[in-house]
Write a structure and sequence with these properties.
With 121 residues, this protein is mainly alpha-helical. The protein is built from five helices and no strands. The model has no long low-confidence stretch (mean pLDDT 80).
Amino acid sequence: AWFGFALLAAAIAGCVTPPNTWPLPTGLGGVFGDMVLKIPGIAVGGYPKGLFASIIALILAAPTLWLFAYGSALIARKNGFAVMERVAQPDPREQDEMLFDEDENEGDEGILALGAITHWW
C-alpha cells in the first residue's frame, strides 16, 4: 500500500508544472511520477500539462488517499479503533514474596564500589 501511495503521490506532484529553474529533466514527481503519468500521456499524445494535468491530479487523489489510509491502518482494521487490552492485575502473593524475600546476593557492595571508582577515574 505504501509503495502504491508513493507512486501516485509522485504522479500528483508530477502534474504540477516545474519552475524554469528546475534543474532536472524530469518533472516534480521524479522518474516514478513521470512513469505513472506516461499512461494518461498516451491518451493525450504527450506529457500532461495545464487543465488535463489538474484533472489527472484530482482523479489520482482518491486512490492516493485511500492507499495512505489503508497503509496507515486508518481503515480496514480488523479489531476496530484503539482497542485496549486489559492490563493483567499483579498477584498480591507475588508482591508479598518480593517484600519478605531474603536477598541471597548480599555481596553486591563490592561491585557498587568498583563502579563508583571506575566513574571517578
